[in-house]
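S2.1 Query sequence (ABC transporter permease)
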Amino acid sequence: MAGSVKQTSDSLSNSFDEFTDNEYITLIATAGPVLLLEGIFFLGPLFIMFMISTMAMENYNLIHDYGLSNFIDGITKHQNISAFKTTTIIATLSTISTGIIAFPIAYFMAKYGGQYKNQLAAIVIVPFWTNYVVRIFGWRIILSKDGVFNTILMRIGIINEPLSWILNSRFAIWLGLVYLWLPFMILPLYSSLENIDDVLLEAARDLGASRIAVFTRVILPLSVPGLLAGTIFVFIFSMGAFVVPSLLGGGIPFVGTRIQYEFGFGADWPAGAALGSILMFIVVLTLGLLLRHADLEELF
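Output structure tokens follow.
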């Protein structure tokens, strides 16, 4: 009797060990909370957005008349084509600009920050202590016809009369996005540059490499993970921007403002949901192309 009980106990123990050693069970156990979170807060709303984008709307009510007409309108209507074109161009320019501006800042912090590296990194995120809507309103004051920017240019004699094209322009949107998302490029770059061993740089110089060669053949290749992570952040945030083009763009078509219009004054939720879906497809496609050249473990 005792032997039978022991045999049964051993069998259950072995079965439990096999169950826990199963790679799929291990994956679910470790990634389960994250997958649950993504399912509730990402896939759920995403599914609702797709459902709405295939429906129709009459008299402020959603009609269960499913179809793809909203997607067709999203990629064929002139105002939507213009919005996607403007958004993609400005988001791309903003991403490139933040990379160019952030690199020397991040490099200085990583290589010359000394014992104050962490403090410098903390200073980078200080602007986020203030609501970003307030900060963008501040840029309206700076860029306005009677604002600080025009006043300085007139006092130093560069212009004779205020420039009226600065505010409510594509330039203003670009400037606002670069200002807003610059920290998200600086910090990943700083992390990558800090991990570059100074011995590698000294070895390159000892072997006769010029400063340009050291940068292009050592520093830049080793900083690609940070550069790519920053690119992903800035590009995604810029593509989905709404506040900056609303406050600084003066009605210039932007996808974020088009979506807001369709859900607001336009009272056409399916059209807004379709635009959001198309925007997400563009972002996912771009990320897929970027991540083909990156190792996720090095990025995050």
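The first helix runs from residue 2 to 21. The chain has 15 helices and two strands.
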